[in-house]
Each structure stands twice: as structure tokens, then as C-alpha cells.
Write a structure and sequence with these properties.
The chain is an alpha+beta fold. The protein folds into three domains: 224 residues, FAD/NAD(P)-binding domain; 54 residues, no CATH class; 145 residues, D-Amino Acid Oxidase, Chain A, domain 2, CATH 3.30.9. Helices cover 34% and strands 24% of the residues. It is built from twelve helices and 24 strands. The strands form six sheets. Strands 1, 2, 9, 10, 11, 12, 21 and 22 form an eight-stranded mixed sheet that branches. Helix 9 crosses helix 10. It is globular. Bound molecules: flavin-adenine dinucleotide.
């Protein structure tokens, strides 16, 4: 089959979840998810920290969509995990102030409550109070949040793909989109192997390449992106019970879209340190050869766009140097966590974890865009800057996107409501209002 009503570019957790809701609500439509890798969730959607994040870090004004969808994502993932017998471990999270940053914790407490957390779920503690719960952690004060969980987003994406396939969605794997042309009423989509697809409507959920795809069809041309590789180190088994919860420190530069490396508990009980945020030249810049290949084109693109202001900014340069340092030196990276978990010995940590890459969108003024970006045309819809906590909030977020598209009549859907797996679609939307 090469003619589709809807083609979704990107088989990460976002593209797969969009297809999931679309397939329940638009049963008569031919839907395809086109993914260049041999499986879904091959890139960022499996290469992350695996947290269902509590929404205390997100300013309810500037990161409204991230905050709202993360809050509702928690109960939805909990329910889906139960239904499919997938791991969902409520193990909580602690944000620590190593220095005098209690005011930041107070702000995060306020945001957490504003974003829907209950005051039983988020508490400000002194260093002494925390040490009764977590004796190995050193800090002056801490925010303890119980409503935070560890999961495996690759397993979730696989399972959603199976559900979506059962409803008739075609998953075209090993299929890289290399060209997109618009005719009067169809998109002509060319794949790397020469196959041609026709689509009446296009959804761009291409993660680290979503900005490039948007540019290819003349959308969001004032924006660009910078890619950051987040690296991890695996802790040996003797450290797996050193804390009960994952531990984050107060972000040094809160306006940047990433945090300092944390102490992470995974869904399987193992522990890791990471991620840092090393600037790289490609959304797939896991190794030197890919970065060298993209060095010249990406540098030229950044110099021609708003990213130029960012890369000549002194604060950004200092941060980039620190992040590169913690990529080259394991000890430097681990010392960032030893500030609050001094028991960790870098010599005992010898195995690297799986790195993942975030692509942060920059506006023409050289500033990071704080929230998810939605761009639409008459025949396409583009989701850009879909970064953390994107995996946490992807179920309610995708329901919101499909509802937006259905309500504009784009798909001429006969069904505005349906049972989608364990949820009634209208109930998900009602929660988001
Ligand atoms: C280090 C790190 C840690 C994170 N930790 C967390 C966390 O703990 N909790 C959380 O909620 N979020 C976390 N996130 C964020 C979360 O992982 C992302 O928001 C989410 O995975 C984005 O999903 P996606 O589907 O948009 O992108 P992706 O997973 O990147 O999927 C996009 C897909 O599009 C495909 N594609 C691109 N171009 C083409 C093309 N031309 N043709 C065909 N296919 C194409 C790619 O191959 C890719 O598979 C983290 C992110 C990073 C980088």
C-alpha cells in the first residue's frame, strides 16, 4: 500500500502514540508511521532516563503544555503499565540544594502544587530531615516528591505500536523519508530506497529531525535547533541500594533545557549517573564519525540562524566547555553527583550507559524555546521541541493533538469520542481542560 490518508514521520514514542489514538478514532482512515530505524523507539525514546516526571520543575506559565501533560501522564502510564503488565515503579524523586538554594526549592514546591501535585506528594525538608530517610545524601535542604516513577519507554512504545497495528496502522520500518513535495491535494513522500508514498495529511513527529522536516516544507523557518548528547555511567551492583529514590540537584542554569547529571534509579533497580549535555552536530551524533560528517553543514546552519547568538554567548560557551569536560573525564562527571552522594567512588564505575540526544529549538533571537511548538498548515502538522518530559506526557499530549486535528475537520472523522485502550477519549480531554 502506498496511498495513505495520514503519514506520520517518526516512529518514536510521539509518532507511535499519535498513531495509537488516531487508529481508535479514525478507523476507516489509512494511517502509516514511517520510521528510518529498524524498530520503533530506536533513538531518544529509548535513550532516556526512564522517569515519569513529577511536574515540579516546570514553570506553569512558560512550560504550560509540558507541565499539564506530565501531570496527567503519570496516572495514564500507571494504568497502561498495569493493563499490559509492564514495569512502573513508583520510587519518588529528591531535588537537593547542596548550597543555599532553598529559595529555588520553594519555587519548585510552588510550581509542583500549581501543576496539580497534592501537598502529601511534595514536601520541603531540611538536610537533617532528609538524612533520616536517605542517610547517604548530603545537602542543606531538599524537595521530596513521592509521585515520580521509573519505567521503560521503549517497552511502552513497542506495546502501543502493537495496539495501533491491530487497529490497522502500517508501520513502515527501515524507511527514511528523503524528500517531500506538495501537490494540490497530496504529499509525495520519497523514501531512501526509492519508494514513493502519497499522503493526504502529514504529521511531523521526527524528533531530532523535526526542524529539518518542517524547513523542507517551508514551516518554522525562523527557528533552528542545537543537539546535546546526554551520556550516562552505570553504577556497580554494590551501589544499587544506596538511595531509595532518584536524586537531582538544583539546576545551575535553570533557563537551559537540561539539568546537571543526576543519580538515577532505573525500572529494573539498577542505578546510573547522568545525563550531561554535550553539544554535538547531529541528532544521531552518538560517535565521532557522525559528528565529523555533520560538522560543516550544521555549523554553517547555526551561523546563519539565531543559534549564532547562542554559540557566541559567553555563558553558553562556559557551559559547553564544562559539559565537554565531563564527557572526556569520567571523574569530572561523577564528581558532579558526589557533591550530594559522596559515597560514590569513580574508580568503581567503569561501564558507560546508553547516550541519548535532545534537540532544543532556538528562536531567531538566540533563545531556547521553553515549551512544545505546534505548527500547522492546511495539509500538515508539525511538533517541534518535544523534549523532556515529553515521554511522561505523551499520552495526554497526543490525545490533545488528535482532538485538535479532528475538531478542525481535517480528517472528517465520524467519531469524536471512542474507547482508546483503557481510556475513554473524552475523559482524557476533560482532564486536560
Ligand atoms: C538524555 C535524555 C533523557 C531524557 N529523560 C527523560 C525522562 O526521564 N522522562 C521523560 O519524560 N522524558 C525524557 N526525555 C525526553 C524524551 O525522551 C523525549 O521527549 C521523547 O523521547 C521524544 O520522542 P519523539 O518520538 O519525539 O522523538 P524520537 O524518539 O527521537 O523519535 C523520532 C523518530 O523519528 C525518526 N525520524 C527522523 N527523521 C526521519 C526521517 N527523515 N525518516 C524516517 N524517520 C525519521 C527517528 O529515527 C526517530 O526514531 C529525555 C531525553 C533525553 C535526550
Amino acid at each position: 500500500m502506498t496511498n495513505f490518508d495520514v503519514v506520520i514521520i517518526g516512529g518514536g514514542i510521539l509518532g507511535t502514540t499519535l498513531s495509537y489514538f488516531l487508529s481508535f478514532l479514525n478507523k476507516s482512515k489509512k494511517i502509516a508511521v514511517v520510521e528510518q530505524a529498524h524498530k520503533v523507539a530506536f533513538h531518544t525514546s529509548k535513550r532516556n532516563t526512564g522517569k515519569v516526571h513529577a511536574p515540579y520543575l516546570y514553570n506553569p506559565e512558560t512550560k504550560k503544555m509540558y507541565a499539564k501533560t506530565a501531570f496527567h501522564g503519570y496516572t495514564m502510564w500507571e494504568r497502561y503499565a498495569k493493563l499490559k503488565d509492564l514495569p512502573f515503579k513508583q520510587d519518588g524523586v529528591i531535588e537537593v540544594a547542596v548550597d543555599n538554594q532553598k529559595d529555588v526549592l520553594e519555587r519548585h514546591l510552588k510550581w509542583g502544587l500549581q501543576n496539580g501535585l497534592d501537598d502529601n506528594e511534595i514536601k520541603l525538608l531540611s538536610g537533617a530531615e532528609l538524612s533520616k530517610i536517605e542517610p547517604e545524601i548530603r545537602c542543606k535542604s531538599a524537595l521530596y516528591v513521592s509521585r515520580d516513577a521509573s519505567v521503560d519507554y521503549a517497552l511502552f512504545t513497542d506495546s502501543l505500536m502493537q495496539d495501533s497495528s491491530k487497529n490497522g496502522t502500517s508501520f513502515l520500518l527501515n524507511s527514511e523519508v528523503t524528500d517531500i513535495q506538495k501537490t494540490a491535494d497530496t504529499w509525495k513522500i520519497t523514501l531512501r530506497d526509492g519508494r514513493l508514498l502519497d499522503a493526504k495529511f502529514l504529521i511531523n513527529a521526527a524528533g531530532g529531525q523535526s526542524v529539518d522536516i518542517a524547513h523542507a516544507v517551508g514551516v518554522a523557518t525562523k527557528f533552528t535547533d542545537i543537539h546535546f548528547r546526554g551520556e550516562y555511567w552505570k553504577a556497580p551492583a554494590e551501589y544499587h541500594t544506596i538511595t531509595k529514590s532518584s536524586v537531582y540537584s538544583v539546576p545551575k542554569l535553570p533557563e537551559y533545557p537540561f539539568l546537571d547529571p543526576h543519580w538515577i534509579i532505573r525500572a529494573d533497580g539498577s542505578c546510573e549517573i547522568g545525563p550531561n549535555a554535550v553539544p554535538v552536530f547531529s541528532p544521531y551524533g552518538y560517535d565521532l564519525s557522525e559528528n565529523l560528517r555533520q560538522l560543516v553543514p550544521k555549523t554553517l546552519e547555526m551561523l546563519r540562524s539565531g543559534a549564532r547568538k547562542m554559540i557566541f554567548d559567553r555563558e553558553f560557551q562556559e557551559l559547553a566547555l564544562e559539559e565537554i569536560g565531563s564527557s572526556l573525564s569520567k571523574t569530572m562527571m561523577i564528581n558532579r553527583v558526589r557533591r550530594f552522594l559522596p559515597k560514590i567512588d569513580a574508580n568503581k564505575i567503569t561501564v558507560r550507559g546508553t547516550a541519548g540526544i535532545r534537540s532544543s529549538v532556538i528562536d531567531d533571537d538566540g533563545k531556547f524555546v521553553p515549551d512544545i511548538m505546534l505548527e500547522n498548515t492546511d495539509m500538515s502538522f508539525h511538533i517541534l521541541n518535544y523534549n523532556s518530559p515529553g515521554a511522561t506526557g505523551v499520552l495526554p499530549f497526543s490525545a490533545h493533538v488528535i482532538d485538535t486535528l479532528n475538531s478542525t475537520g481535517i480528517f472528517c472523522s465520524q467519531q469524536q469520542d471512542a474507547k482508546c485502550g483503557p481510556w475513554q477519549f473524552s475523559e482524557i480531554l476533560a482532564r486536560l481542560c
